[in-house]
Amino acid sequence: MPNMSLNKVVMPEQDPKVRARNFEEVTLGYTEDMAVEEAERCLNCKNKPCVSGCPVGVKIPEFISRVKERDFYGAYEIIKSTNGLPAVCGRVCPQENQCEGKCVRGIKGEPVGIGRLERFVADYVMNGKAAPVEKPVSVSYTHLTLPTILLV
Ligand code: SF4
After folding, report:
1. What are the tens digits of pLDDT across the range 60-117?
2. Bridge partners of 27?
3. CA geometry: angle at 99 spanning 93 and 102, to 5°?
4. CA of 14 to the centre of ligand 1 (A)
5. Ligand 1 pocket, 53 CB below 6 A?
6. How far apart are CA 122 and CA 130, in angstroms?
């Protein structure tokens, strides 16, 4: 069952008294549970109106489906296939006039927080929480003679 809340999951922010004394980002980003809860608001529309609003054609319902499954690295790979700057776009794109402006959930209530989810996925990977890259298998050439090595 989708999450039929009319509002986006609220993103935590620094306390005003704290943020008045630093130059860090005001918004703190979603936790994993918040991201999954927001992703559950997506209806996985067949005609994907949100994608038509994205200048780089991010596969929005597909990446959000991965977030629902807590496959955050899979979501990242889908975003990265068409967008090389997800952490930036998740923060500064005018989503209200692009993807979120076309989201059907915005007809009655707030659209799915596509930008927030994109930011979450990018930050998740940048913070090293994704599956580590597999170490390549080392190859030994010690059993080969010099002429054979030159042919490898
Ligand atoms: S339009 Fe909104 S609800 Fe539909 S697939 Fe896109 S993000 Fe999900």
Report:
1. 999 999 999 999 999 999 999 999 999 999 999 999 999 999 999 999 999 999 999 9
2. 13
3. 140
4. 29
5. no
6. 10
CB within 8 Å of 116: residues ≥ 6 apart: 8, 9, 11, 29, 30, 35, 38, 90
pLDDT for the residue 141: 65
The structure's pTM equals 0.85
pLDDT at 132 over 70: no
CATH superfamily for domain 16-133:
Alpha-helical ferredoxin (1.10.1060.10)
Give, using CA atoms, the residue closest to atom 8 of ligand 1: 42
Ligand 1 centroid–CA 123 distance in Å is: 22
Query: How high is the pLDDT of residue 151?
Result: 61
3-state secondary structure of 35: helix
Nearest protein CA to atom 6 of ligand 1, as residue: 50
Q: How far is the CA of 119 from the centre of ligand 1 (A)?
A: 17
Give the pair of three-digit tokens for residue 36.
């999954």
